[in-house]
Amino acid sequence: xxxxxxxxxxxxxxxxxxxxxxxxxxxxxxxxxxxxxxxxxxxxxxxxxxxxxxxxxxxxxxxxxxxxxxxxxxxxxxxxxxxxxxxxxxxxxxxxxxxxxxxxxxxxxxxxxxxxxxxxxxxxxxxxxxxxxxxxxxxxxxxxxxxxxxxxxxxxxxxxxxxxx
Length: 165
Prior knowledge:
Elements: H1 5-19, H2 24-31, H3 36-44, H4 51-61, H5 65-69, H6 80-90, H7 94-115, H8 118-124, H9 134-152, H10 157-164
């Protein structure tokens, strides 16, 4: 027999509170609950938080409503962190996107080789590893060199003149 939604929520509030290292009293203060007995009653399934408080709990624990309700994710559900990454990526310029793509591709290959997850990744995202043109590879190498030079405090005139050419 499956658990009721009330039991799922109560179990998850307790679980995420403990994972966050918060006491019931601290959680009550952070979400504006009356007192720690309110939190205790949520965790025992005697009562449930209202909708506004559920949103506060999700934000505090950095989880989605799906996480709180134990709703299985589909292939295209995104975690809060994934959504933040996508928003940041969209604000990058072309150079920034190519740099992120380069790092992501390398990390994907490293993990694929280490854990044999190639089949799963390709099944979910057939174009997970975009193929770079020779020009893209050249530009990425210049970007890497510029980043290394910037890190060391050196201005790379070779990369500047190569860009201008």
